[in-house]
Amino acid sequence: MDYDQILHDSHSRRAFLHAAGVTVTSGSAVFLAACGRGRASSASATTGAAPRAADVAILNNAIDLEHRAIAAYTAAIPLLSSTTQKAAKQFLLQEFAHASALSSLIKGDGGKPRPVAPSYNLGRPRDVADVLTLLHMIERAAITAYVDAIPKLSPGTLRARIASILANEAQHIALVRQALGQPPVPEALVTGSA
Amino acid sequence: MRSQLPSGDAIVLRAALEVEQVASFAYEHVRSSQPESAPLLGTLAAQDREHARILGIAVRSLGATPPQPPADVKAAEKGLAALHLSRSIADVRTENGALDFLIELEAAAEGVYFLAIPKLSDSRLVRAAAQIMANEAQHVALLRLLRHPRDPARAVPTAFVEGKH
Fold this sequence. Notes:
The complex is a heterodimer.
Chain A (H helix, E strand, L loop, with lengths): L2 H6 L1 H11 L1 E3 L7 E4 L17 H24 L5 H27 L10 E3 L6 H22 L7 H23 L15
Antiparallel strand pairs in A: 1-2, 2-3
Helix pairs in contact in A: 3-4, 3-5, 4-6, 5-6
Chain B lengths: L7 H24 L6 H24 L11 H9 L13 H22 L6 H25 L18
Helix pairs in contact in B: 1-2, 1-3, 1-4, 2-5, 4-5
């Protein structure tokens, strides 16, 4: 599925989420899970570019985390208050954009982007605080992974491009922490530990 | 004979340190006249000082001499001029004016790190630069939120944070 199409077309976004099997059931206990029919991406190896296997592996780990974040925000948005919801919708679109960029980078390195997983166990958040805690956990995991990944990538602009995604995830977690009533910027060097 | 010239990494970090020093000065100068936003500005200023401290250690460990922090407004304005901002410290007269100035300054800091990361050779410094850049991005988001408190979506307008460069 083409992420750029998803990003700019709400019908395609719905189709993506349906394919990913993201389900949200309202009730006393809400089970957030993506269960279903993840399909392989239509990406094929590009010709002419020397594959950089290490970069492809790192970027594919990152795309996994972006897919998980997309599933989490998609499931969380209906449960949030209107003001928080507006920001969360924007964050969701930004996670789509990250996944799209990572997909392009992987293809550019002659690799194949990892498809959406068959399922994402997102737990059983029961209220707004639980949902925000889930989003906090998802963003922390992404930040930790990006901080670890950036120095391992091939030197050059690729590192800066991934750092630009890390910086956006750091912004997300600051606002999520604020919504949780926690200090929004607890550390001068962002590690993902807070 | 060993060269006394600073390494490429030292030159890059020295430039980032100059921005952190100017930002720290600017926060202190602005904070004293902005009581409503002073607590948050105090946190952000402390984090910029911590960035400067860490960068100073790194610059010295590479055999280079850290720049002197600005001692007064005139010296700080000189540092700001190098960043090509549209506002200066002297222009700050209102709460919103202060926030607009700090947002632009922090965005310039983001841009310095975005450009620095591909130039650094030591992977530990690459990691630290990315972590500081992420923190600067948080600063920009929180300052925007303070500027537009009813619209949190406006605090994080772009998926790829490259700053002003």
